[in-house]
Amino acid sequence: MAASSRRLPDTPRLEAVLAAAFNTNGKGGLKVLKRELSPYSTSFPCEVVTCRLPGNKKTDVFCKYSAGIEYTGFGHRGGPAYELDVYREVLQPIGLSTPVCYGGQVDRKSGEAWLALEYLPEALGVGKLHRSGAMVAAAKWIGRFHRLTQTDGTVGRIGWMKAYTRQYYMGWVRRTLKCSSSLPRKLPWLETVCRHASDLFEPLLEQPLSIVHGEYYPHNVLYYRGQVYPVDWESAARAAGEIDIASLTEDWSAEMTQSCIAAYQRERWPEGPRAGFTRRLLAARLYFCFRWLGDHEDWSSYPGRPVWLQRLRSLGHELGVL
Asked: Both 299 and 186 in a single domain?
């Protein structure tokens, strides 16, 4: 972040774009009082900006900047410009609880982008408040979101969004195989699972699909004053909703996982769970194994490798290919 901070807008520029976002031009203006790098880690640099608005009102704003960073995670992430579109075209029209998006801007020449969001100062990730029901609340939230964004194969107004296609899933499989070459010896079982991967991912391609968050992990789902606020929507895509419930419940106890799944299903399908849910959930868990293994070229320096390989092998047995 230190290197990219040179690409952040200077304070006069930041004041100008925030004034436009808050529509304070001609009303006494907007003054930036303080800028601090956010302790909340994302793929892009973020600041908490304290502003004085007309009427001497102070407010804190969470700003995210592209800052010249072009990391897309092999097409998985879209960046601040994409996230701004998700807020404007998907989240705001639906009306579920999310941080208020005050606005943002994309420079057509440079491609630089930023967005300004409501800052939730006392919010915590739902995983830290699971005893208060936050995890189950997060499962309900995403279940309702998937129900409201369900598609039947037609894209309509969301045709601009990324989609998890067979090609997308298999790209992670190919990268995982390539990354495995950094190991001192081959893993025959890994090659077997990869060989069957296309068929194993078939359940994730079944219609209807929904819009997914893409990385609906507990640290990306804030709990604030009794409500759920998912953040970091740069990976949103058209895909199977089970992907989000798979990431939410990853590494949790069987009891917590089942509670979240039950809450999700009740909200997602009030008339009763859709057939094939378990197959799709297993396929989603398989996807995340490939997703994170395929994201690291040198496995010798990747601390998560043993866990993901063990999980992948167990899923291979559970899915009947090993």
From this structure: yes
